[in-house]
Structure formats: C-alpha cells, structure tokens
Amino acid sequence: MGRAILVIEDEAVLGKNIRIYLERSAYDVRVAETAEEGLALLDVFKPDAVVLDFNLPGITGLEALARLKAFDRHLPVIMITGHGSVELAVEAMKAGARDFLTKPVALAKLKLLIDKAFHETQRDSALDYYQQREADAADLTSLFGESPPMRALKQTLRQLLEAESQLQDADAPAVLVLGETGTGKELVARALHYNGPRRDRPFVELNCASIPAQLLESELFGYERGAFTDARERKLGLVETAEGGTLFLDEIGDMDLGLQAKLLKLLEEKTVRRIGSLRDQRVNVRIVAATHRPIDALVGEGRFRADLYFRLCVFQITLPPLRDRGDDILSLAHHFIAIHSGRYGKREPSLSAAAEALLLRHRWPGNVRELRNVLEQAVLLNTGPVIEASQLSLTTTAVPPSPTMPDVMETSRPRADAPAQTLEDIERRALLDALKRTGWNVSRAARLLGVSRDTLRYRIEKWGLSMGA
C-alpha cells in the first residue's frame, strides 16, 4: 500500500466512500468514527495525512486538530464540515488545518488536496537541502577542459542524456562515477541531473563518508515518530526528499554492508521504508553514486556487495586525473585566477612562463581541487601583475599507485642497479606491460590500470604504442 490516510468522520457512509475512493489510488486508509478513536490510532497507524470532520461527538474537530498538531506539527490535516462559513474556515486554518472542505464532499477534490499536501510537504523538506547549496543548474560546460579525455567524457555524457530523453518510462539507469579525489565527480552528477528530464525536480546530495554508519540509515530513509529514543516526530529521509529527482551518493565505497543491502532493495524494488514503519512506499528516484576507492578491489575483499556493484554500474563513468589532461591544467589555472581575483577584488594577474611550466610538471595528487586551492592562495598573497613559480605552494608528495594496479606498477619499477628512468619511461612501460598481459585488450588493460578506455587510448596514441613495441 501507499501513504497512510486517517479519516476521522462520524458519518459511516461518507467515511466508507472516502476510504474506497482513496484506496483506488493506492492509499492505505483507516476510518475512525470519533476523535478519541482516531487519536488512539496515531501511534499504531502512523498516518501521513488526516481527513478530519469538524462536528464530532465527544472531542470536537478543533480540539482533535490541536492534539494532532501536538503529535506531529508537520502532519497535513484537511477539515470537512456540513456547516461551512468564512469564520469557521479561518479558525481551522489558524489552528493548523492545511485545507477546509464543506459537505457534500467532492471526493476528487479531496484527493487533489491530499496529493497537493504531500507534494508541498516534500518540497518544504527539500528546502533545507537546497539552502545549503547553490541552486543554479549545472551545464556540461561546467566540466571545464578540451583535452581528449575531457572531450570523450562530455561526449559520453551527451550520449547518456540523449538515451535518457528517449526513455519510455521513469526508470532512469543508475550511474556509477569513478575517479580520484578532486576530479569533479559531483560536477558530473549535477550535469546529469540538470541537463536531463529530471532537471525541475530535486537534486539531493549525501556524502556517505561524512556521517557515522548508525546515522546514515536515518538520513537516507527517514524515521517515524517513536522509532527510537530521540525520534520525537516523523522525519522524511533523503530518498523521499529527492522524489522525482536525483539522489547523489558520494563516497559510496564507505557505506556499511548492512545499509548496502537496503540500498540494493531501493534500486531493485523502487520502494523505501522509514525506520519504525511497517509500510513500504514507492519512490521514483534516480541514483548517481560515486567513489574514489577501487570498487573492484572492495568487492573482491567482501567490503562491497557484488550485487549492489553490478546494479549501480548499469552505466559507469571514469573521470581522468588532472595529470592526464595536458593543457587543460593551464586553462583551468587561468579560469581559477579570474574567479579568485574577482572574489578578492584584485586585478587579475598573469602566470609567468616558469609558473606555467611548474604547473604542467606537477603530478596533482589532489587533482582539480588542489589546483583551485593553490591558485586561490597565490592570488590572495600576490601583490604584483604576475604570479611567479615561487608563489605556487605545490606539494612534493608523489601520487600513490592505484590499488587496482599493483602488479603492473611492480613490473614497471626500476631495479636499484638500473639507470634512472623518467616518469614518462615508467608510464610507457606500465602501459605496455598492462597491454601485453591482457593480449592488447584495451578494455581489460584499462581496468587493470584503473583508468577509462578513452584515457588509455589517448595514452597509447601519445606514446605511439603498437603490438610490436
């Protein structure tokens, strides 16, 4: 069944008709003929909305309304009466009623008001999340860069968006975004949402690594009043808040195994159950997940469910690291200098040739995020028209090899007695080793190296590699 509706109506025939009508729309309806009976059902039935008669035997409708609001101040209540007046309607609205109907009740209108109440409740709940982030739509142009890997990435996204626009149902495929920290996985998720058919619905983000495991479930799925000690009123989870839109689960590789099982159920059955509830609720949410961790290795170690992995990667996108993006580094650097100069009210400086050369040589373990931070500090401290290389606070930390390719890196590591090799020599050797080990199967070699196929093809062309090499 769907959402729960409690009808408090002393006219048995009207109560029965309301129940039958709403049940046809998949609502779960319970009818009480007195306010006392209806109030007693609150903790047991846990309604999502209440239809309340004004004239009742015993406790009056207004008294019942006050108790309903004390129980849950967010609970939508629609009042009906056989003796409507402006004064009565104003009194009911002041007491917390969402809408007011007079008898005879048009059942279609009642359902419309209930649907509207649920939509507004979901919208109001989403506002808390919107206020924490910029609400501006992200275009594909927010994925800055024209290097071959970035052109390939944007073309892939366009193909996915085009396919999604042709969908004959609302079941958009899940997307798994892989990439090192700082490569822009959130930008990809936003681009998919704001350039697709769900652009007018919520985009809700949750970082799975930033919340303790015991709290993550309640954030995702919500809870009912009384579900645990501090649950004093119902809370909608992020899944319900994102209804019709996109839920972006960042760093999903850090999610607890028990919660992974519930996420798999959501993906497969399109239903969600709040903590403390006995009722599954259908939802229409598109899931985009991301992680910087080697997801294949996590599956092999039993730390990530294989069935969830295969369900998430219906469509998989791997973002290229900044060090593989060539002149994009300088384009991004000038872009960030312009942004930060405007923020700090300073004249926009240029980069010296030595500074540009240093930026191109750096390995960027923190990727685009590191570049942005380095340029912000340089702009902030710079007092002249040019940023020199000495003003760039670059770390010297080497980029750790990807956990997905230890064997390849081991074979490419020079011996102690071997002549010194450049980074280019090491990279070329690693590429050749991976390709030879996989029989020059580009897809398998890319997985072994932990990069996308497009990135690997770009590196093959760059070094002019062939099977005879």
Secondary structure blueprint with pairings:
Layout: E1 4-8, H1 12-23, E2 28-32, H2 35-40, H3 42-45, E3 49-53, H4 61-71, E4 77-81, H5 86-94, E5 99-102, H6 107-130, H7 148-165, E6 175-178, H8 185-194, E7 203-207, H9 213-221, E8 222-223, E9 235-236, H10 238-241, E10 246-250, H11 257-269, E11 271-272, E12 281-282, E13 286-291, H12 295-300, H13 306-312, E14 315-318, H14 328-343, E15 350-351, H15 353-361, H16 367-381, E16 386-387, H17 406-412, H18 423-437, H19 442-449, H20 453-463
Parallel strand pairs: 1-2, 1-3, 3-4, 4-5, 6-13, 6-14, 7-10, 10-13, 15-16
Antiparallel strand pairs: 8-9, 11-12
Helix pairs in contact: 11-13, 14-16, 17-18, 18-19, 19-20
The general outline is elongated
Task: Determine the N-to-C terminus distance.
Answer: 64 Å
Count of individual helical segments: 20
Average pLDDT over all residues: 85
Strand content: 5-15%
Strand order of the largest sheet: 2-1-3-4-5
Contiguous runs where pLDDT drops below 50 for at least 5 residues: 397-421
Q: Please state the oligomeric state of the protein chains shown.
A: single chain
Helical fraction: 40-55%
